[in-house]
Amino acid sequence: MSTRTVNTGRQPWTAADIPDLHGRIAVITGGAAGLGRAISTALVTAGAHLVVACRNTARAEEFAAALCTRVTSASVEIVRLDLSDQASVRACAAQLRARYSHLDLLINNAGAATPGRVLTVDGFESTLATNHLGHFAFTGLLWERLAVAPEARVVTVTSTIQKRGVVAVDDLHFAHRRYRRSAAYAQSKLANLMFTLALAGRITGGSVRAVAAHPGLAATDFSGNWGRATRAVMAAPGPLLTRFTQTPEMGALPILRAATDPSVVNADFYGPDRWNGLRGHPVPAPTHSRALRRDIQDRLWSESERLTGVGYP
After folding, report:
1. What is the mean pLDDT of the segment spanning 50-69?
2. Percent of the chain whose predicted confidence (pLDDT) is above 70
3. Of 8 and 141, which is predicted with more confidence?
4. Is 102 a member of any domain?
C-alpha cells in the first residue's frame, strides 16, 4: 500500500506529494537529458511505467540502466523520436499506438534552441519544429490513446522566456525577419503555452486535461544551447550558481505537479513561486496576455495543422 500523502496546499509541494503511479503509463519526450532526467526519475520512483521518447537512444539506454539499478522496481522503455522530423514523429506515434491501448500521461518536454536559422527536412525552422510542431503532431497522433484513459493529462513544458515571445503566424520560420536564437526560442515557448490553452479549450466532455508548466531557471545541460555568457553563469560553482539557478530536481517540480497533482484542472499553468518565477516550489503561474490572444491561438492551431498534416478528433 502506498504511504504517499496528499498535500493540502498549506505546505510547499515537493516530490513527496506525487501520488502512487503504479499501473500508469507515462510518455516523456527528451526524458533522458537535462530536466527530463529529473522528471523521469521522479515518475519511475512513484511507480509509473515510463516511455522515454528521444533522439539519442544510446544515451537514454545508459540512463535507463542506471535508473533501473537505482530503483529496482523501475519499468522503463526507450523509443526513438526526432521531433524535428515529421516522419520520425509519425513512426514513433505509430509504434506507441501499436503497443499500448491507452496512455495516461504525455509530457512534451524536449526542447532545442538552434544558433542559426536551419530548416528541417520538412522545411520548418528547426527550433519551432522541435519545440512546437513536433509536439503538436505527436500529441495529436496519440490523442485517441490518451482519450480512452480515465484521467489522462498532456503536460507541455514552456519557459519564462515565453513572456518575451511573439508568435508571427505569417512568418513562423523567420523567412522575412532576422533570425535570432533567443527570438526563435521565445516564439516556440510561447507557442507551447498557446497550444496548451487552445487544446484545453477544445476538450469538451472528455477526461484529458491539458496543462502547462515551466521550470524557472534550472541548471541543466540545456545551457549548452546558449552563448558563452549564459553558459558561464549556469556552469559557475558556489554562490553564483545558487544565486541565479536551481537544481534540475527543483526545476522538475512544476512539471511533476502539473502531471500528477489531483487538484490540477484543465488549462492550469505551473511555475516556481519565487524570484519572478525563476526559483522555488511549484504554484499556479500567471499567464502573460500574449498567450491569451485567442485569435493568435486559433491561427497558430490552423497553421500547425496545415504544416504537420495532423488534425485532432
Report:
1. 97
2. 88
3. 141
4. yes
User: What percentage of the chain carries pLDDT values higher than 90?
Assistant: 83
State the Cα–Cα distance between residues 35 and 251, nearest whole angstrom. Answer: 7
| Residue carrying C-alpha cell 549556469 | 234
Instruction: Tell me, yes or no, whether 9 lies in a domain.
Output: no
The Cα–Cα gap between 205 and 250 comes to: 34
Nearest CA-CA partner of 231 in 91, 115, 59 = 115
* Residue 312 among the catalytic residues: no
- For 166, the domain range is 20-304
Sheet holding 75-80, edge to edge: 75-80, 49-54, 25-29, 105-108, 153-157, 209-213, 269-274, 279-284
Torsion of CA 136, 34, 249, 229, to 10 degrees: -110
pLDDT of residue 244: 66
Residue 313 inside a domain? The answer is: no
What is the grid cell recorded at 18?
Answer: 506525487
pLDDT at 255: 98
pLDDT > 70? residue 157 = yes
CA atoms of 278 and 216, how far apart (whole Å): 4
Catalytic residue selected from 100, 179, 185, 270? 185
